[in-house]
Amino acid sequence: MKIGPRLFFGFHCFPEPFILSHAMRIESEIKLDFKDVLIRPKRSTLTSRKEVNLERTYTFKHSGHTFGGIPIIASNMDSVGTLAMARSLAAFKALVALHKYYQVDELVNFFSQNPETLPYTFISTGITNEDYAKLKDIIGRDELQGIMGICIDAANGYTEAFVEFVCRVRAAFPNMTIIAGNVVTGEMVEELILSGADIVKAGIGPGSVCTTRKMTGVGYPQLSAIIECADAAHGLGGHLIGDGGCVIPGDLSKAFGAGADFVMLGGMLAGHDQCEGKIVEENGQKSMVFYGMSSATAMNKYVGKVAEYRASEGRTVSVPYRGDASETFREILGGLRSSCTYVGARNLKELPKRTTFIRVTQQLNEVFVNI
Fold first, then answer.
1. Is the pLDDT of residue 50 over 90?
2. From 210, 229, 275, 340, active-site residue
3. Considering the chain, what percentage of its residues have pLDDT values greater than 70?
4. Is 275 considered catalytic here?
5. What does the alpha-carbon distance between residue 49 and residue 57 come to, in Å, rounded to a whole number?
6. DSSP β-bridge partners for residue 7
7. Which end of the chain is more exposed for a tag (fewer CB within 10 A), N or C?
């Protein structure tokens, strides 16, 4: 099929020729991160955190499918987006985007025994022809019917190749819910939704083990990215994921308050049994390795080396071993419920309507942190 102006398989794509920008410019408007704001409390008629409902119901623009559950997603990093994490979070009706390195047979074997996790699981894919062939194999398996959707993942969601891949997947799987990202600006959110994405992932560089901003100088403060991208997504009937930058439960409240429909977590879910990593004990302290998917560790693991034409854009760290992820997840949900009671939101849907951000110069009193 011929690619016409802004059309590819019937969906919105890049114009021809594809032009990124015309000249250097400076945006002087202040952009904000989670650390730059607090949520202003408001009068509330709630008497207990138990009264707060954190489940959301969404119907997606292109697939037409409806999701009902907790809109928190474990990131598609290989130390977080695991099958064990999918089983654990499904008990909360929360989501996992599986990392893309599972073999098809592994997925089939797992879901044959755990079909209840399918409605809360996304299959992840890159954008190469090999990725597409594997994706078709996965989606065609009988044991994987009922999977929530597809997460098309790239560190840079601004390329023409990425948008064309979104168009290609939408044309091949018209009934699948599709996540696409990552981007941080409204115009690119619109481009991806009009090209077939139901949900766009916003975030470049805010992750705890991401060094994209250090290595490239490219990025966008995450709170402002969510505010601007959510506005663009909702204007077209799409949905938005705030991906990265959350280090404490209060950050999720800010992300949801800023308009995110979903929040994706990496570092906050690292170090647990469900991460399927090796536990190391030294001087009585247990830890697990956690690394970015653009790190040298990940590239050495999956492709044998860091390619000569690129640099590592992720770090490798040791995080304290934290046991079962369900305990941490309950703590996160408890923080969210408490946030809602402070502003009088009876459910998560009301939180953006009840949120007023105030600029601050300090978040926490950390005088005893190192004692």
1. yes
2. 210
3. 90
4. no
5. 20
6. 4, 12
7. C
